């Protein structure tokens, strides 16, 4: 869609030059601020004046918190970079007291952590190789050797970091070193069955996603599907959320539920639950990588 400043006193404005897909540079702008008049006009005018076309625009006006959240995907002149756009947009951001970011086409680099359950890792690898994950998996880290063959068959480095109570601090330091070494933008806990320390959670704040094997709040602790069977549940669910120091209480990105009935035993519930886990996690990873998730205090705004 071509941007036109509709509030301009001039009825006809020069249109941006059309670029083909190979010439056009693609960006995403995300922002959050207190709701007030003129925000969208300021954004669209800014883009129009630089010859950009809007490809996708979504916004959420939170009437309860009196905030506005916006995601705009746009394309145009290859002479611009995300850094240049951020610099030129800063005056508008200051005027409206915005929290904002510009993102270019560079894919997020994803480091995946796993323990003995491999269904989420397998699904992420499948979607990555098919080009639908939204980011690039760069390495797999595990506290077990169980899934080395799966990772290496996909051409991914597999790093084994054993964890014991005595080596936990050392293991977490090694993980942070790997995040830096592989320039990982996102850490995904794909059924990584270790509780991260508060310090590590703070180090990865906003860039680590976990999959929880229940529809939170739900059955916490060991053997969740046996707990669910004992309670006669009618829905099996999974929750993908950002990692925080509060165990399994981080901002929720996505949840998936599947209806079941009395005929499902613990094994059947586990099988169905694994499907829900893989779906919820892959969506959360893709939406994060596509800059569709905006943090809003303890919750999220997700532009699907």
From TrEMBL:
- Keywords in alphabetical order, please: Hydrolase, One-carbon metabolism, Purine biosynthesis
User: Start and end of every Formyl transferase N-terminal domain?
Assistant: 108-285
Query: InterPro entries from the entry?
Result: Formyl-FH4-Hydrolase_C, Formyl_transf_N, PurU, PurU_ACT
Which pathway features in its UniProt record?
A: Purine metabolism; IMP biosynthesis via de novo pathway; formate from 10-formyl-5,6,7,8-tetrahydrofolate: step 1/1
EC numbers: 3.5.1.10
Q: Which residues form a coiled coil?
A: none
The catalysed reaction is: (6R)-10-formyltetrahydrofolate + H2O = (6S)-5,6,7,8-tetrahydrofolate + formate + H(+)
Give GO MF terms, alphabetically: formyltetrahydrofolate deformylase activity
Q: Does the keyword Hydrolase apply?
A: yes
UniProt keyword rRNA processing, yes or no:
no
Q: Which domain of life is it from?
A: Bacteria
What family is this? Belongs to the PurU family.
PANTHER family, per the entry: FORMYLTETRAHYDROFOLATE DEFORMYLASE, FORMYLTETRAHYDROFOLATE DEFORMYLASE 2, MITOCHONDRIAL
Q: Which HAMAP family match?
A: PurU
Q: What is this protein called?
A: Formyltetrahydrofolate deformylase
């Amino acid at each position: 869609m071509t941007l036109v400043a509709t509030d301009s006193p001039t009825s006809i404005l020069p249109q941006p030059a059309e670029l083909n897909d190979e010439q056009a540079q693609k960006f995403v702008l995300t922002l959050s601020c207190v709701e007030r008049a003129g925000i969208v006009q300021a954004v669209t005018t800014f883009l129009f004046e630089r010859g950009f076309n809007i490809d996708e625009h979504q916004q959420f006006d939170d009437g309860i918190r009196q905030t506005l959240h916006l995601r705009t995907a746009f394309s145009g002149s290859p002479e611009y970079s995300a850094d240049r756009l951020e610099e030129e947009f800063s005056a508008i951001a200051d005027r409206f007291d915005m929290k904002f970011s510009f993102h270019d086409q560079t894919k997020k680099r994803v480091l995946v952590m796993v323990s003995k359950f491999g269904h989420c890792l397998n699904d992420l690898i499948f979607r990555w190789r098919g080009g639908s994950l939204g980011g690039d998996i760069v390495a797999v880290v595990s506290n077990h050797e169980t899934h080395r063959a799966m990772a290496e068959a996909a051409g991914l480095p597999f790093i084994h970091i054993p964890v014991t109570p005595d080596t936990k601090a050392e293991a977490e330091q090694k993980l942070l070193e790997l995040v830096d070494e592989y320039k990982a933008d996102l850490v995904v806990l794909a059924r990584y069955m270790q509780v991260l320390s508060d310090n590590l959670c703070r180090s990865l704040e906003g860039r680590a996603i976990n999959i929880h094997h229940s529809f939170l709040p739900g059955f916490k602790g060991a053997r969740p599907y046996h707990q669910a069977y004992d309670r006669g549940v009618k829905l099996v669910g999974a929750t993908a959320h950002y990692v925080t120091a509060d165990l399994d209480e981080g901002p929720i990105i996505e949840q998936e539920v599947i209806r079941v009935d009395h005929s499902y035993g613990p094994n059947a519930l586990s099988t169905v639950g694994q499907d829900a886990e893989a779906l919820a996690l892959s969506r959360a990873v893709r939406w994060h990588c596509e800059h569709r998730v905006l943090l809003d205090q303890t919750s999220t705004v997700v532009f699907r």
